Amino acid sequence: SGDLICYTKHTELFVYLCETQNYPTELENILITPSRPKHLPPQHSIVLKTVPNYITKEEIEVETKKSFKSIFNLEEMKGSFTDKSRHIRLELKSIDEYNTLLNNKGITINGHLINVFEFLSPPRILICSKCNDPGHIKRNCNFPYEACRRCGQDRTIGEHKECIISCHRCEQNHLATDYKCQFITEYRRSLVYKLKQQPNLLPSNMQMFIPIECREKGIKNNMILRNPSNEMNNSDIQSNSPRFNLSSHDWPTVNKTTNNNNIIPQLNEQNIWKELKVKQDEINIKNEEINRQLQFMQTKYDDYMNKMGSIILIMSQQVKIQNDNIERCYTTMNEVLPILSSTLETFQCLITKPGMFNQQDNNNSFESQNIVKHISQSLVFIKDRSDFLTSNQKVLRSLVEQQNALMAQIAGNFNGSLKEKSTLSEIVDEWNSRTSITQLCEQWKKTPPNSLKQNLLLLLYNVESLNTHVADVDILLSSYNPHICILTGVGAGIKKNFTFPNYHVIKQTGTNSFGGVIILHHQDIKCKVADKESNFILIEILLSNESIYVGGIYVPPKSLPPFQLLSKHLNKTCYIFGDINAKHTDWQCIRNNQSGIHLQSWLEETGNELIIPHKPTSKRSDSIIDFGIAKNATGWTSEVLNEGTSDHYPILFQSSISIDEKSFFRITNWKIFTFFLSAIYEYWLSIVYNLDEQTFFNLFSAFLSSLWDRCSTFEHSANYRPPWPPHLVMMAKSVNRARHIFFNERNKILQTKTENKLSWISKGQNIWKFAKPSFHAVAPPFRGISKDSRKITNTQEIADTIANFFEKHFQEPAYDINNPIHQEAIDSFKQIEYTPRVPLEQISIKEVVDEWMRFKGKKSTDSAGTSAFMLKQLPQEYMGIITILFNKCAQKGNFFETSKHAKVICLSKDGLYPTENKLRPISLLPNIGKWYERIIHNRIIKWCEQQNIYVDEQSGFTSNRRLQTRIASLIEDIRLTIAACNRPTLAIFVDFMSAFDRMWYPGLIHSLTKLEMPLPLIKWISSWLNNRSFSVHHGNASSRNINMYVGAPQGSVLAATLFRLHIHFLPSTLKQFTTHLFADDLALVFVGS
């Protein structure tokens, strides 16, 4: 038919020929129509594994083509489909893009990271199309007829489109050519086995993927088979045959010449060359422009870095000279002070001895002459030292002025706004004019503004189904910032967990599909639920001196208000707002309805009053049906807002009741914080060498805290969440209308889905595929302490009460002097106490940086006023200063004394008003101390791993030893006992109460000594434990300092490891039982007889 088939052993040439534009249009006036192959070779194919099914093939193609321009084909791999994902085969023409994608090991598609793997095609076998047997072709087949793949009969006789599928070799339910056939599988396995024995039979530059059924178990790297002579063959091919070059426009030379001279390719590439030249010129122009910009930016950056480097170098030299001058002044003062002291003593002697200057007394005359001579010498020396101090003072003043100029120049190089540059200049001026760091810290320290008192602001809104009016509520909250927001007519939205910034949600279902009430209260207001019934919520607002009650109510149409419920609560300071659906002419309605008549009669009988808006609240009836009810409505004002897309208007109520509001929050400019620390790096580098580690720790921590205050401002919360702009309001309203239509249609679909889901759950064990465990990881805040049948709510009294309890809790425990184990532990502890401090191994800067990188950016402040987030902002060069500080401490084998004081906050284990023993203390330790502690902790963990200090019965506090492992082991022990031996089993679960808090120091040190922990680590742990203290903080109140004589602080990473080592010998002590340990919990298993 005139078809031509091209063969090549170069994959590059094959890829080149896959593009039809790379062929000539004709040969010897014969038109050529190239046929594009379906696939590229496996060397250009990549597999995207486990791509989710909800990502369509078109989306994958669009996303991949954005980054990779040489995509040839993309298809879903048959046989890889599951319920959730499938594999995608991606073919790339460019070997560079292929290598890039393979080296990245992943690609991002629609926010999902898809793993990328090399595509290896499985070996195929030759199957005869006549007899369907492997190993030969139809031309060499001696079978008498052409067998059907489905049934095995002669396919020339009759129709075989719907014949019964049955393999004519094994009579199984599959096609005769299917790889499921045992005969074909065994044949392929034998071929693969032969290739394994003789891998040199494989072609060079070829690797074969071994199917799963042909792999040998227990042998590594059994997935791919290669020719061992590949490297030699590759070198021979490269030396003997020319490699195809895609960058060249020449066709590869043919090794074997042909005698047919009639076929001479004539290629007209003039147009192609012109177009390529134009494109190349455009690319060159763009490259030149980019290179110029890069060169300009690099030059500017180098100039800036040179300028900064020179400034820092000058400052470092000046700091050195300044330190030398200070040292000389210090030496001079040490020389002058003894002379001044002796001179003053002389004057004292002159004053106390009468007649000292009596010239008639020779003895007195001689003594007086000596005194005068001594005074004269002292004055000369003092004058000389004074001149020396004056000259040094001038030098210091000159250096300070130069440093001020350099600091101002550094501030000028700061890349920030005008306001930020002004703030930085002020900080630099204050730094230059300081008298001491302590004085500067006091100057920069800021106290948050006190809370403001505002009148209670309440918003009432019938949302006509919250599902379609969430944007309305969000706009109203951001525009008016009410303290309380009451939403009625919530509808089906009551079942959803809607969240609104800065507000807590309390909700209650209704009696019909349009009912339901939600109360939103601001997070700064202390509230609790007082009562709940259908379509009704009552909350108690805790003010500074009293409590008031605010309720939300919804009365369905044609229903009477719940007068019994209203009478129950309106006998106290209570205000109830809602959609009452009561109309009466007394409150400006056109006509009365049954609810309005009964409500008016009830008001006259009880003396209660209404808080009535002055405009209609319903858009449909021009009636006032949304209002408030109170015992005394004096001081309340209202305003009907012409906003929202519901059929009711929102109403804003304001009272004369004042509420404390935390209306300020901190904003920190971390850019200035980091830049200023970089500018004064040389100063702290010199200080860390001249001060001891304890003084530097205190000074540096205080400076970081005060600099944080200096770089921070306290803003009013009203500026934090500004109202929506008009165009967003209009957009939200249009979205609400469209959403309303959408939800009406969707409800029908959801109903059908729900019915199908319930039907599926009711079948078999499907319910366990649907059910999920629920965990509440957040401990609720508490508002007071229950003690002696009363509730303590004053913050200072709460802090003092908790401190009194913990003082007894952490007091020094009593031990039995007659108990030999106790006495042995006491002796070990005293021996370590009397041992001199042993230096620890030097800490490397890598250890410091590694722990710094692991910091989580938490902003909670510790007892020193610093936070982990603040330390994350430290410039990189400060790692050297921290390393020097830690090594000073490690050299002495001790711990920072200030870091032993903890700021303790408590979490409730039992509701809003727990007792003292139902609190979980959390210690907020100084973060710099925790930094140092983690480095030592890593060394302890490394020692445990080297010495294999683990027990099989322990899980928790250790990597790769999880709770699931311990539970599975415990259940297996019980199962084997009951099932195998048919014996009863008793399991006792023990919880060590206050395990960390009651850890006895002598017992711990004795356990570490028995484990043969190195002496420097034991001594350091002893220093870390001793002389610890804490203070309890609740709100803005703090207690006195409490000393700890037992236990380790919760919140320390080292505490958990020490407790694990403390109970290391517990399983061996209880060896007659089967023990299981997880963290501080113990399970004992007793096997019955």
Automatic annotation (TrEMBL):
Coiled-coil parts of chain: 280-307
InterPro entries from the UniProt entry: DNA/RNA_pol_sf, Endo/exonu/phosph_ase_sf, Endo/exonuclease/phosphatase, RT_dom, Znf_CCHC, Znf_CCHC_sf
SUPFAM superfamilies xref list: DNA/RNA polymerases, DNase I-like, Retrovirus zinc finger-like domains
Highest rank taxon of the organism: Eukaryota
One MF annotation (Gene Ontology) recorded for this entry: zinc ion binding
Domain CCHC-type: 128-141
Keywords: Coiled coil, Metal-binding, Zinc, Zinc-finger
Domain Reverse transcriptase: 888-1089
Short name of one Pfam family: RVT_1
Descriptive protein name: Reverse transcriptase domain-containing protein
Lineage, uppermost ranks: Eukaryota, Metazoa, Spiralia, Gnathifera, Rotifera
